[in-house]
Amino acid sequence: MRHLRVHIPLLLGLLVALPVTGQTRVRVTVNDGWRFAEGEHAGAETPAFADSAWRRVDLPHTWNVEDAFDKAPGYRRGVGWYRRPLVLDEAVRGRRLFLYFEGANQVADVFVNGHHLGQHIGGYTAFVFDVTDYVSFDAPNVVAVRVDNRHDPDIPPLDADFTFYGGIYRDVWLVATAPVHADLLDHAGPGVYVDTPEITEQAATVRVRARVTNDGPEAVDALVRHRVIDAEGQPVASVETGQRVAAGATEIVISETTLPNPRRWSPEAPYLYHVLTEVHAGGELADVVTVPLGIRAVAADGGGFYLNGAPYPLVGTNRHQDFPGLGSALPDGHHRRDVQLVKDTGFNFLRLAHYPQDPAVLEATDRLGLAVWEEIPLVNTITMSEAFAENAERMLVEMIRQHYNHPSVVLWGLMNEILLRKPRPMPEGYLEAVHALAERLQAAARREDPSRPTALAVSYHEVYDGSGVSGVADVLGMNLYFGWYYERFEDFGPFLDSLHAAHPERPLFVSEYGAGSDERVHARRPVAFDFSSEHAQNYHRSSLAQIRARPYLAGSAVWNQFDFGSAHRQDTKNAINQKGLYFFDRTPKDIAFYYRAVLTGEPVLHLEREHRHRATRSPEDAVHPVLVYTNADGVALRHGGVTSGEQVPAGGVARFVVPLVPGANPIEAVGRWGTETRTDRVVIDLAVQDSAAALRAVNVGAAYDFVDPTGLVYLADPRAIPGAGGGARRIHHRIYGTDDDPRFQAFREGIDALEALPPGAYELTFGFMEPTHEAAGMRVFSVFVGDIPVLSDLDLAAAAGRWTALERKVHVVVPPSSAPLPVTFRATHGLPILSSLVIRRL
Questions:
Q1: Considering only 13-27, 633-647, 705-719, which range has the smallest mean pLDDT?
Q2: Cβ contacts of residue 577 below 8 Å, gap of 6+?
Q3: By C-alpha distance, which of 291, 12, 289, 32 is closest to 176?
Q4: What pLDDT does residue 761 have?
Q5: How far are the Cα atoms of 65, 139, 328, 383, 435 from residue 158, in angstroms, in the given order?
Q6: pLDDT tens per residue across span 456-513
Q7: Which 8-state DSSP code applies to residue 399?
């Protein structure tokens, strides 16, 4: 670690070796060269503690990158220790020194040279400690941080559909200031807060509140000067105010100036000013702070959302902050790229679910132009304690002060689906306590920032639950999943209309809508919860059309922009919430191009790609639909040397019916915008799995096809199609020993026979999974080909365990002179069961 002892002082020396007169603040990350160890370590906060055996890590860091996604139930929620040496340059002697943490989940205790600086509670907001009185310039300093992400009944969130990654997962900064400076200890806010109480076409009133702290030994006469700088770097307004500040005191200095001919901020034209604040003390420049300024006004009522006085429906999405291989520990570039992808999808709005996010996110939404709903992590349930309420309120205050100056933030969120997980039995007074907490947070938000509306989100069943919570915030957000968790697609719009008719004055917002999908799962007759691409695409096309037909809505947000980690989920992909428009790795799903086609003004032409591998049981059943997402004036399809007639896309999609042929099918879409044309190409591979095929595969018990990593299509079991009968079942549970969960989650129980095998040599691969029994001996059966037992006394619980994939491969020969031999199942105990079968001719 010797390089760390050199790197930091050199870097600091370079940054502060500017003219000494009027030194201003210095910020430098201290992300590299930490030592980390899991668990409790007595004395780890002391400088003499030996940490050489600890793992070296760089920040951002989380200890849940791997275990949050493996198939072992749960993930580590506990304590982790971080330690780092810090050598300070003489150039910063006499200055105030701070450690600024952008985020650590969820309780952080910070020590310098063994001194406990304090504790921060809450995993999603920044915190800062003054280290000046505890550091040395004569010897290396040791920074130690104990982080704890264990469940705590007094700390939100208690329960949520996302993973609570532990660790110091955002940047850490060392900040050096003069003794007189803008306050850093105001809930880790910038110390300078800007708003625009009056805006006209001719002028905007710019009000600045600066918190000036004097950490020096004597009172000073401070001069606070503000300059408004336009996007071209030119000063366009200024004001200065004097203030006497006593030693050890902080004074709030309020100034106002007028900005002539202001340019408005909007998602279409995100014009940004900046306010440059100088704090002078004793005639010398002491501190400089720069904060963003966007000139815009926001409001909401029963008629919708308004931006700069005009109706402005917010159309957007939600975002979680994690990424494969990184968990929540994303570098800033990943955050900025995510925001760019949201913008590129055509959205003007982003809900930051369900917690305050990295400063890089807000910087990007300001710059790129996305209106933002930011909320605290108060999700699903509460604890009826004053400590819980205090922590929730403090998180809200921290979020507002830290992100107050970002013009992209237009809504402060108070809570999400807070009555979704009611405790059982419900304590007396629980509903009243939830309502009281909502009112308390509403009052705090209005006190902190009366310029922005508040919002809260409720689930479908909470809208009319009688608790009164849905009416507390200024805007009612509703997380609605018609055609996924309940009801039908077509029930969505009428539900909104009935609510609007009953409460015409209430601003309504569809804060979530979405459906899970898996690119490996496909269905001719898609249904809710089959996780087929087809159902998800049907869902989104129907939902967005109904939303856009209702201009009274303040806004809407897809759930979710990206698939994200949710460790308890056991859908077709373990530990992943699959409702994204993009996969977890940020590859766009086909449905993302529907939104681009409908919402952007850029030409979009996209042939569906998730269904590139297809199969049929008969050559006569090779006519398949092929979708094109486009905003072209017209689109045609070329296949097999034949060009279809041109279609006019309806609502962003053109649907063609294509007679595919066995093997590779190159398909080209040709889109026309006036006289301009564009093309998109894809190759669809079709396998015919009739009785003469060399390779056949069945997804036994499933009403959907499954495509494995080799491109082999396991066709839906015809008997599992709704209404066809048979003992088909499906479970939603992670399947151990495989990544092909959808192939084993469905099965036929009580199976007695499969089709007969005609003469020939075969390799049969049987896929099994025990869904019910933990104990051996509860289900025992054998598999025969004709009268020959190929698998005898198979006990899945004994051989593999419950919910575990088990495959058995056998070779059989049906003699040329033989009649076809049936594959049969005979029970010794319980019911025979089968999940998949592959028949390969040898």
A1: 13-27
A2: 161, 162, 516, 560, 563, 564, 565, 566, 569, 571
A3: 12
A4: 96
A5: 21, 43, 18, 8, 17
A6: 999 999 998 888 999 999 999 999 999 999 999 999 999 999 999 999 999 999 999 9
A7: H
Q: In what order do the strands lie in the sheet with 833-834?
A: 728-730, 746-749, 833-834
How far apart are alpha carbons 169 and 173 in whole angstroms? Answer: 13
Cα distances (angstroms) measured from residue 609 to each of 13, 614, 663? 54, 11, 16
Task: Give me the pLDDT at residue 279, please.
Answer: 98
Q: Are strands 310-311 and 314-319 parallel, antiparallel or unpaired?
A: unpaired
pTM: 0.95
Give the C-alpha separation, 360 to 338, whole Å.
10
DSSP letter for each residue of 770-792: BSS-SSTTSSEEEEEETTEEEEE
Q: Are 532 and 583 within 8 A, CB to CB?
A: no
DSSP assignment string, 305-319: EEETTEE--EEEEEE
Instruction: State yes or no: is 417 an active-site residue.
Output: yes
Mean pLDDT (the chain, rounded) = 94
Strand blocks (E) in 460-507: 475-479
Q: How confident is the model at residue 23, as a pLDDT?
A: 62
Letter string b/e over residues 223-259, b meaning 16 or more CB atoms within 10 A of that residue's CB: bbbbbbbbeeeeebbebebebebeeeebbebebebeb
Average pLDDT for 819-828: 94
Query: Backbone phi, then psi, for 714, in 5-degree steps?
Result: -90, 105
Identified catalytic residue from 102, 398, 417, 462: 417
Q: Do β-strands 623-630 and 653-659 pair in parallel, antiparallel, or remain unpaired?
A: antiparallel
Strands 454-459 and 96-101: what pairing?
unpaired
CA–CA separation, 123 vs 127, rounded Å?
10
The pLDDT value recorded for residue 388 is 98
Which of 581, 584, 539 is CA-nearest to residue 561?
Answer: 581
Residue 365 DSSP class: H
For residue 551, the SS3 value is: coil
3-state helix, strand, coil in the chain (%, to 5): 15, 40, 40
Residue with tokens 């938000």: 445
For residue 630, what are the β-bridge partners?
A: 605
Residue spans of alpha helices (H) in 350-506:
359-368, 386-403, 430-448, 492-502
Cα 385 to Cα 295, 390, 467: the distances in Å are: 40, 9, 19
If you ran DSSP here, which 8-state letter would residue 530 be given?
S
The answer for residues whose C-beta is within 8 angstroms of residue 826's C-beta and 6 or more apart is 781, 782, 784, 832
The amino acid at residue 227 is R
DSSP run (H or E) holding 34: strand 34-38
CB-CB contact of 348 with 270 (8 Å): no
